[in-house]
Design goal:
Blueprint (H helix, E strand, L loop, with lengths): L2 H21 L1 E2 L8 E2 L1 H12 L1 H17 L5 H21 L3 H23 L3 H33 L1 H7 L1
Antiparallel strand pairs: 1-2
Helix pairs in contact: 1-2, 1-3, 2-3, 2-4, 2-6, 3-4, 4-5, 5-6, 6-7
Length: about 160
């Protein structure tokens, strides 16, 4: 298996991971503000695998969910703004702890502002509903990234190169 095939498989698995983690929702006690596990996982994926692989996996995930009728264009808008802003912060400022703490919440804020513009509703109501998820993302992004790093270092491309 060459490097191109390995990269395609890896991105496909990352897209699947984004899709599956988005299906798990944690209730927050505020109606309509349940939190998807995909946010801290997305930031961790960007930190470990890089922005390019992360954004390609995100586009694939959104496309699959849209084709299956699970996501609407609004869902895709929210996800892509989050990915570009949160992932962009990680890509620019790297994987230091403070960066991983703020990348997800800032991505969520940006997505909520854009959604408010799209729906022509006050942004504050959308942001307030997202606060529990933003806190969870801030807390969990770094630990999830560390776990992914350890797994990737053991079984990632470096392991593949040893076998060839």
């Amino acid at each position: 298996m060459n490097k191109k095939v390995y990269t395609i498989v890896e991105i496909s698995l990352l897209a699947s991971f984004i899709i599956i983690s988005g299906a798990f929702k944690i209730p927050t006690g505020i109606p309509g503000s349940e939190f998807q596990m995909s946010a801290p996982i997305a930031i961790a994926i960007c930190a470990v695998f890089g922005f390019k692989r992360y954004i390609i996996a995100g586009i694939i995930a959104s496309s699959i969910l849209f084709m299956l009728g699970i996501h609407t264009l609004l869902n895709i808008e929210i996800a892509m703004i989050f990915r570009i802003v949160g992932g962009g912060i990680v890509a620019i400022f790297r994987t230091r702890l403070p960066v991983l703490i703020v990348a997800g919440p800032i991505g969520t804020l940006a997505a909520r502002f854009v959604l408010a513009l799209t729906l022509q509703v006050p942004a504050l109501s959308l942001i307030i509903a997202a606060i529990p998820g933003m806190i969870f993302t801030a807390i969990m992004s770094y630990p999830i990234m560390r776990v992914m790093q350890k797994v990737y270092q053991r079984k990632g491309m470096k392991q593949h190169e040893k076998m060839v």
